[in-house]
């Protein structure tokens, strides 16, 4: 029951931050872990609304990403997670198509500490990400690798990676 209350509180905080914004983007992602667990992710993003190191080559910017992920395992029951991450993006210059690379570290809360053969050790996890893709006409398509681990705060700390294809649409 404590895990459900923690997840609900985390979701309320994340959604409260998103609701305070004027406009948010939506994203969907489908991925897989090394243990054949399928991941289905639904998220909302809101830009930092600031750019740094602007040049003819590109610019550095970023966004907040709040997401729900459903983990559909083969061997064990499914799992759910909520996450919130600041993500930094380097967007290369372009007229119609703008390639980008991204990286970020945030937090996540899992409904269970078991995921296939992995024992996460705790429901609290850090979410590390790296990805790349292309932006065009208010949309984005890319590939992303996400790693979840509790950074050794509690043992065991097996961690898990998910590799996904994502699509994002701006409103």
Q: What descriptive keywords fit this protein?
A:
single chain; 171 residues; Porin; elongated; disordered N terminus
Q: Care to describe what's here?
A:
This protein has a single domain, classed as Beta Barrel (Porin). It contains one helix and ten strands. The protein starts with a helix and ends with a strand. About 10% of the residues lie in helices and about 60% in strands. The protein is elongated. A hairpin with a 5-residue loop joins strand 4 and strand 5. The protein has an eight-stranded antiparallel barrel. Strands 6-7 form a two-stranded antiparallel ribbon.
* Number of DSSP strand runs: 10
Structural class determined from secondary elements: mainly beta
Number of helices: 1
What radius of gyration results from the CA coordinates?
16 Å
CATH architecture: Beta Barrel
- Per CATH, what is the topology? Porin
Question: Quick one: CATH class?
Answer: Mainly Beta
Q: Main beta sheet, described? A: 8 strands, antiparallel, barrel
Average of pLDDT:
88
**Alpha-carbon distance between the two ends:** 36 Å
The strands making up the biggest β-sheet line up spatially as: 1-2-3-4-5-8-9-10
Order of helices and strands: HEEEEEEEEEE
Shape: elongated
Helix share of residues?
Answer: 10-25%
Q: Assess the beta-strand content as a share of residues.
A: over 45%
Low-confidence stretches: 1-12, 15-21
- The total number of structural domains is 1
Question: What's the SSE blueprint?
Answer:
Layout: H1 2-19, E1 25-33, E2 38-47, E3 58-72, E4 79-92, E5 98-110, E6 114-115, E7 118-119, E8 124-136, E9 139-149, E10 160-169
Antiparallel strand pairs: 1-2, 1-10, 2-3, 3-4, 4-5, 5-8, 6-7, 8-9, 9-10
């Amino acid at each position: 029951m404590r895990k459900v209350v923690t997840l609900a509180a985390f979701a309320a905080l994340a959604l409260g931050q998103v609701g305070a914004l004027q406009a948010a983007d939506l994203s969907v992602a489908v991925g897989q872990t090394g243990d054949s667990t399928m991941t289905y992710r639904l998220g909302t993003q809101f830009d930092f609304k600031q750019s740094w190191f602007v040049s003819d080559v590109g610019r550095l910017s970023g966004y907040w990403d709040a997401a729900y992920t459903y983990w559909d395992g083969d061997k064990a029951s499914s799992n759910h997670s909520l996450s919130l991450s600041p993500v930094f993006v380097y967007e290369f210059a372009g007229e119609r198509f703008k390639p980008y690379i991204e990286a970020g570290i945030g937090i996540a809360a899992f409904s269970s500490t078991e995921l296939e053969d992995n024992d996460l050790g705790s429901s609290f996890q850090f979410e590390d990400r790296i990805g790349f893709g292309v932006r065009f006409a208010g949309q984005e398509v890319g590939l992303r690798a996400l790693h979840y681990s509790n950074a050794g705060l509690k043992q065991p700390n097996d961690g898990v990676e998910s590799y996904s294809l994502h699509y994002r649409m701006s409103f």
